[in-house]
Give the backbone structure.
Amino acid sequence: MTISMNVFCSIHSYQNIVLMTTATNSCRRLCKAEQVSRKKRKVDFSALLPDDLLLDILEKLPTDILRYKTRYVCKRWFDLTTNRILLDHASLILENTTGSQTVRLVDIREEKDGLKMKDQCLDIPYNGRIKSWCNEFLLITDLNRDGSLFLFNRITKEGSFLPPCSLSCRGHYGCKCGVGLSYDDFKEVYKVVHVFNGPPIQCELLILKSDNISCASIKWKKVNGPSYTGNRQYYWDDPISVQGRYFHWDVHCCKYLISMDTAKERFRQTCLPGSDGIPMNNCYFLVEIGGFLSLLHKVSSDKINVWMLKDYQRTKWEKLQSISISSYTSIYPGSALLPVTSVKSKRYIIFRKPGSYTGLYSYDLKDKLIKRLNINIAPYERCVVQSTAGSYLVNTV
């Protein structure tokens, strides 16, 4: 009996040891799997930071890094960078087209005590004219290769020539040709739009993948151009770009513009707004304000109505406000200020005064004051405005 009990106890102890060993091994496997999972799992420590602290960190980064890299890390960073930091910026390029080829980048930033300017030279390996600027890419005509277009990335400092256009515009320099660079958010591709008014008016597209801008084996695609050209029957020019997607042309018509949704690759007429019952009579200028196409209509010698196209699909215009220009006509009699761009907060419109005493001016829509900006600009310098795709969280589709 004693032997049987000993055998039973031994068997029982052995079973316990087996169970404990099995449980220990299982626990070790689970722990090892958890350790491997933790190693594979990326911990987003920035998610633990409150918005104010993360903003303090992001604001210390250079504008180009914020605009083209940082804000694409995640949705939260995109929202903070776009709507809290870059909202107070406007960027334009000043291009000297006479004598030595010089290009300057001007960054205008809204601060508590007004607008601050940063001016720096750009090193671009080209000898031509900047035709369009979308996100980080510049579209340039090259003088050394007649009729060629050069696509240059400002961040990577790399570029490549595009295939020759199929339309015989002879170099993109004449008054019959217009080109623009857009970005299609849906397909994640860039599109070069080339419009040539022969007549008849013709249009073609070149599609480039955003993750691999390569011009090998790509060809221009012909699309239907607009069937109406207003009073521009024999000439054309580069478009006003909005959100890096919508192109607009002033065709010197008192009733409509010519517009193109480059994502849908479709032209259309965009009816002009009524301006207090006063006909447009071609006394208007187009500019992008806060991600919307805006129209400044000079209704009298001292009054400009500012209209904004709030809904592209429904052609819904809203009157933003009226600007009294008597505040500067007394200081600069007989002068005309042409809108160039705006700070994205929609508070400041940037104007240029043409002529030998040219300069840049800002108009404060809130305080209704106009000031000359502290930056030198020569009469022969061209202004090229940046259009940023995807940076406006508004419903325009």
